[in-house]
């Protein structure tokens, strides 16, 4: 009898702790508590981690890149090429300060790769590819097709010139992330049109700076942007997001929480690139140059019936919603709950803190 009671108590305790952990995944309303909250929820020893990820993290390799010859390689391309096909260990490419003029691809066979830079002197990976010469998808300075990618303290840049109204093929991607379960910490993304192609998969961005003019965060991924700065470099019409969800059954979307929007232009939060486009801004500062309509249907009025554009407890002069388009919504607490939670990106199985080197 005593043994049965003990087992029951342990089972109840397990349920309590498990449910408590799930509740803790909700993004805090107080921005000052975010760092500790995230640390509590990204413990690398937790049992929920994907088994292959947990195994990879137990075996870490560090490769150094220094363009001046003081590392294992002088460029990032050679460092990537040195990683074996079917890689099964966390491989950190530690990149020394400097500008690396390279066009990089990490293919799907090279999982568990991390780019790491010095936070006080961040390395810059730079190229000038455009859609005219490469297609938008292939114009990226850095393209990642592999799963479990991470970047910390890296600048991703596309130096293609600012598009003019009559310029064709001017889309120029700085980063394309197409692999599953990727995280970016304290990274910077520079471009104009289509800066960040958040293509597909579950992704997490924290403390990042993203600059562009038109659709500068686009794709069909399922991502959370936490404590990021979104800088519009638009002179006239400007748009932050173009989400590509096109099917009702897809639980994807972009969530921006505790972010800051600034910069110039007649700015919109997003436009309806695809019929089921889904974007939420919460606890975010919105500037005075945000167009009072907030959102744009991209010339597809029939998309108005099916897009999901939400705002929740934002602040700043642009946060007044009484002139918003009628197909956007101010979210209730209950509606917001689904998006303001790490469960939205299934983070308990994969999200880890950045390395400490």
Automatic annotation (TrEMBL):
Q: Does the keyword rRNA-binding apply?
A: no
Sorted alphabetically, which SUPFAM superfamilies does this protein's record hold?
Answer: Pectin lyase-like
Among the Pfam families in the record, one is Pectinesterase
Domain of life, source organism: Eukaryota
Give the Enzyme Commission number.
Answer: 3.1.1.11
Principal EC category: hydrolase
Pathway in which this enzyme or protein is active: Glycan metabolism; pectin degradation; 2-dehydro-3-deoxy-D-gluconate from pectin: step 1/5
Annotated InterPro entries: Pectin_lyas_fold (IPR012334), Pectin_lyase_fold/virulence (IPR011050), Pectinesterase_Asp_AS (IPR033131), Pectinesterase_cat (IPR000070)
Question: So what does this thing catalyse?
Answer: [(1->4)-alpha-D-galacturonosyl methyl ester](n) + n H2O = [(1->4)-alpha-D-galacturonosyl](n) + n methanol + n H(+)
Q: Which GO terms describe its molecular function?
A: pectinesterase activity
Localized where?
Answer: Secreted, Cell wall
Q: Does the keyword Membrane apply?
A: no
UniProt entry keywords in alphabetical sequence = Aspartyl esterase, Cell wall, Hydrolase, Secreted, Signal
In this protein, the active site sits at 215
**What family is reported?**
Belongs to the pectinesterase family.
Q: Which PANTHER family match?
A: ACYL-COA THIOESTER HYDROLASE YBHC-RELATED, PECTINESTERASE
Name the UniProt record assigns to this protein: Pectinesterase
Q: In which organism is this protein found?
A: Dioscorea zingiberensis
